[in-house]
Specification:
2 copies of one chain form a homodimer. Chain A is 26% helix and 25% strand. Chain A is α/β, with parallel strands linked by helices. The first copy, chain A, is globular, with a radius of gyration of 22 Å.
């Protein structure tokens, strides 16, 4: 079973507070790291959380608001200080390239590695933008004041495993198990041939994580994130500020929970809270009325998707 | 007595560490704040230290390296979120203007207040760049790999105060003291006229703070910072790495102490330590061999210049 976890660095919105930092998260799959949004101070969080810079393979930036993007230049710089030589992929709105070009020129910086820049505008919503043999990342159509994309991380190629009970039911002696696991066809003493496929169980369902921030309530997201294991959805406001949420293209806790319910996700994680709120309990209460499996994101939190799966069985 | 203090937010150099943040300090004089350098994360430090954004009057940026400047865009943005309306002065290398223009355009930001940008290239070393009726800031000629200026904060117009002992020696009765303090000339019973100037003591010497980072050892700084109360001088390296310091236009602890001694400053504060050093005791030891009144800067430290004066008397 591969590891698949999400580590939260920032749950604030436009203005940081005493306890809430700008948006940024690390998705870790098979010990490789993928940064999702990169607000100011992200590199300091990475260092404090002992995230190995060398294991960072790609950065995904949802949109060009300062609280999601101002940590990028410093982080890219520091990777050079650590003398990174392997390329880094970055998926972001095209405008980030202009910002980086000017900053690098004016701060006399150069990168020791290749930065492979992929403008998100080049991909249709739902398109796979990044792929390994274990998982893929696709873009989600969010609706914010500016061009904005969410990201869906989803396992692929999950292989069914050898099923001890199936083998026993077929009367296969234990000393043949290893051969079958290795993919060999065997012949039993009674002449029957046993193919590896005959002793395979069901493949575990692929684990998936959907990141939806910043966005207003978007019903058309439902098919894209259907039955995801974990949905991170922004809830900048409580529902009594629905008109302010509408004006600023943000969501309320109630709306996030409604989407979670419609999409039948397993777990909902609320984040991106306005600086006006000190106590976040009302977000939990408001969401729970609609969707019970909800948590409030907090700085430093780590969610292991495998444990969420098990807690759900 | 006006307050005059320096609060340290970051003592690191190019790469932040677990315990050391990028360069940034607040100089507070008469309850108004002046930010000196603004590495990534500065606004979060300001919030955590409860520095009132509304009392920030000017920003001084020494040079265009990321660890001194990448916190500026986020801070300026946040001031707008707090709906600042009064102008903000910023003294920085001209290139910062280009960076801000691109970032504001690409992150869809606009400022709610006027940003008065003063390119440091417009001032000769030693020139006064900012002035109030209580203090002035002048630029210091540092030598780094890129254009770089230090800053000297120095009290001006320190008024001599009424001297009780002088008045007594002249035989002035107590009931005349108030009149003299108010600037009135009085006539005593014996016919003598006493002018206010006749009962004034010495004015206290002006307090001054010199910020010198980043720079190699620059002997020509001496007359600019002569007899300053407090000198913050970078010491990126220990002296056994003198050749690395030379290559990168940085200083060693020994060089910082030598400059402090030559300039006859009262106190030396060392900072801007390379990430390669965990224990900073050797910096203290190296500097003390040359200049005894030295401290190692640390995050969150507050130095009150009045207390330094008294500890020195």
């Amino acid at each position: 079973m591969s590891n698949f976890e999400v580590r939260i660095f920032g749950t604030g919105s436009a203005i940081p507070t005493n306890s809430r930092l700008p948006s940024s998260q690390i998705v870790t799959i098979n010990d490789r790291h993928y940064l999702v949004d990169c607000g100011e101070g992200t590199q300091i969080q990475l260092i404090r959380n002992r995230i190995k810079f060398s294991r960072l393979d790609a950065i995904f930036i949802s949109h060009m608001h300062g609280d999601h993007v101002l940590g990028v230049p410093g982080l890219l710089n520091s990777l050079s200080m650590y003398e990174r030589t392997h390329p880094l992929k970055i998926f972001a709105p095209a405008g980030l390239k202009d910002v980086l070009d000017v900053i690098f020129a004016q701060t006399h910086s150069y990168l020791t590695y290749e930065l492979e820049f992929f403008p998100l505008e080049d991909y249709k919503p739902g398109a796979v933008i990044y792929k390994t043999d274990k998982f893929e990342v696709s873009s989600l159509p969010l609706e914010h004041r500016v061009f904005c994309r969410g990201f869906l991380f989803r396992e692929v190629n999950k292989k069914p495993k050898f099923d001890f009970y199936k083998a026993k039911a077929l009367g296969v002696p234990n000393n043949y198990f290893k051969l079958l696991k290795q993919g060999n066809t065997i012949q039993l003493a009674d002449g029957r041939e046993i193919l590896p496929d005959m002793v395979l169980g069901e493949a575990e369902p692929p684990m998936s994580y959907a990141y939806c921030s910043d966005t207003r309530f978007v019903e058309k997201l439902v098919p894209y994130i259907k039955r995801s294991m974990l949905l991170y959805h922004e809830s900048t406001f409580l529902h009594d500020m629905k008109s302010r949420a509408d004006e600023t293209y943000h969501s309320t806790a109630k709306e996030a929970a409604t989407l979670a319910k419609m999409a039948e996700v397993k777990h909902l994680l609320l984040g991106h809270f306005s600086a006006r709120y000190r106590d976040l309990t009302p977000f939990m209460e408001e969401a729970k009325e609609i969707f019970s499996n909800v948590q409030i994101a907090r700085e430093g939190q780590v969610l292991k998707l495998k444990e969420l799966t098990e807690s759900n069985e």
